[in-house]
């Protein structure tokens, strides 16, 4: 009998929202039928104390392209989301968001991984994260990594959505094997999809990049732009200043950035503009503008940047 009583206590009735509504409706109906006025009070039985909400956020320090980024993240947040939404780094493209296409690939400690399926909370332990923006050694064609240069000159892309992922997957391969066979290249790129079907050119690009990394002389399909044929550098450009800013409100599309860049280039002292939907890198003449004025110009254009 004692056991039965304990079971009854553990299974005591809980008033649900449906029970509450049904009870109120019945009380109103009785009042209408009887024609009397009365007060009806429904007393719910004591509820169990709510358990504390689970911790959903934490601060981590991510090493991205050699830069330490201290950021507060959601524990369910992917590396791609952190880079794009928290840090404003558009260094990888989001394709399927299901780890099926490889467009978002980055290299973590020498291994190519899909940033859309890798939790940022697992990366605050000193891992080295490398994106396509971190493999170049400097500006211009000479500063491009051989893979970047090969993909450009061999046309290893079409729409460009998958290109960054292919480059990073190939980068991870060539870090350990600078003389891969065709089958080894295919195996390394098996997790990447090119919806435009440029696989032949992609394979050629990887092979020529590997040859350049081995120190061999490489002839590309597209002509190399020599210093003589390049656009002459003006004195203002030679002494220019630049900085990457992050938009307070990201642009909706890259087409919007093209329109913004065209407008900014008409401003006196602005020499060049590059960027993405989330960042902008203006180049200006320091003899005519300073950073504060550049920020003001951006704000006046309707696209303020963060401090």
What does this structure look like?
The protein has 307 residues and is an alpha+beta fold. It has four domains: 51 residues, no CATH class; 78 residues, Ubiquitin-like (UB roll); 74 residues, [2Fe-2S]-binding domain (DNA polymerase, domain 1, Orthogonal Bundle), CATH 1.10.150; 66 residues, Alpha-Beta Plaits (2-Layer Sandwich), CATH 3.30.70. The protein contains eleven helices and nine strands. The protein has a five-stranded mixed beta sheet, with helices on one face. Strands 6, 7, 8 and 9 form a four-stranded antiparallel beta sheet that branches. A hairpin with a 3-residue loop joins strand 8 and strand 9. Helix 5 crosses helix 8 and helix 6 runs parallel beside helix 8. The longest helix has 18 residues. The chain is flat and about 75 Å long. The N and C termini lie far apart (71 Å). About 7% of the residues have low confidence.
* Order of SSEs: HHEEHEEEHHHHHHEEHEEH
What's the total helix number?
Answer: 11
Which structural class is indicated by helix and strand composition?
alpha+beta
Q: Can you say what the CATH homologous superfamily of the largest domain is?
A: Beta-grasp domain
Instruction: Bin the strand percentage.
Output: 5-15%
Spatial sequence of strands, sheet with the most strands: 2-1-5-3-4
Compute the number of strand runs.
Answer: 9
CATH secondary-structure class of the largest domain: Alpha Beta
Average pLDDT value?
83
Q: What are the segments in which pLDDT stays under 50 over at least 5 consecutive residues?
A: 4-14, 28-34, 36-40
Q: Percent range for helical residues?
A: 25-40%
The gross shape turns out to be flat
The name CATH uses for the topology of the largest domain is Ubiquitin-like (UB roll)
Over the alpha carbons, how many angstroms does the gyration radius reach? Answer: 30 Å
Cα distance spanning the termini: 71 Å
CATH architecture of the largest domain: Roll
> Mind describing the biggest β-sheet?
5 strands, mixed
Q: Supply the number of structural domains.
A: 4
């Amino acid at each position: 009998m004692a056991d039965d009583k304990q079971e009854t206590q553990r299974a005591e009735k809980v008033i649900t929202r449906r029970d509450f509504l049904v009870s109120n409706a019945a009380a109103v109906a009785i009042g209408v039928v009887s024609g009397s006025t009365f007060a009806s009070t429904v007393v719910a039985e004591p509820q169990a104390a709510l358990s504390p909400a689970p911790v959903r956020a934490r601060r981590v320090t991510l090493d991205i392209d050699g830069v330490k980024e201290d950021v507060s993240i959601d524990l369910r947040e992917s590396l791609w989301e952190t880079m794009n939404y928290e840090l404003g780094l558009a260094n990888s493209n989001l394709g399927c968001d299901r780890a099926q296409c490889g467009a978002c690939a980055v290299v973590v400690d020498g291994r190519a991984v899909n940033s859309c399926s890798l939790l940022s909370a697992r990366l605050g332990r000193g891992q080295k994260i490398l994106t396509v923006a971190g493999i170049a050694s400097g500006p211009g064609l000479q500063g491009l990594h051989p893979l970047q240069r090969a993909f450009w000159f061999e046309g290893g892309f079409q729409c460009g959505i998958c290109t960054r992922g292919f480059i990073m997957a190939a980068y991870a391969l060539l870090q350990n094997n600078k003389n891969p066979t065709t089958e080894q290249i295919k195996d390394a790129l098996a997790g990447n999809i090119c919806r435009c079907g440029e696989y032949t050119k992609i394979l050629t690009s990887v092979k020529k990049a590997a040859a350049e990394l081995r120190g061999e002389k490489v002839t590309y399909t597209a002509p190399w732009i020599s210093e003589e044929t390049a656009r002459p550098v003006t004195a203002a450009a030679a002494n220019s200043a630049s900085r990457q800013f992050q938009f307070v409100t990201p642009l909706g599309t890259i087409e919007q950035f093209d329109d913004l860049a065209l407008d900014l280039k008409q401003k006196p002292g602005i020499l060049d503009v590059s960027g993405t939907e989330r960042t902008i890198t203006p180049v200006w003449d320091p003899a005519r503008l300073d950073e504060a004025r550049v920020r003001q110009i951006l704000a006046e254009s309707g696209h303020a940047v963060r401090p």
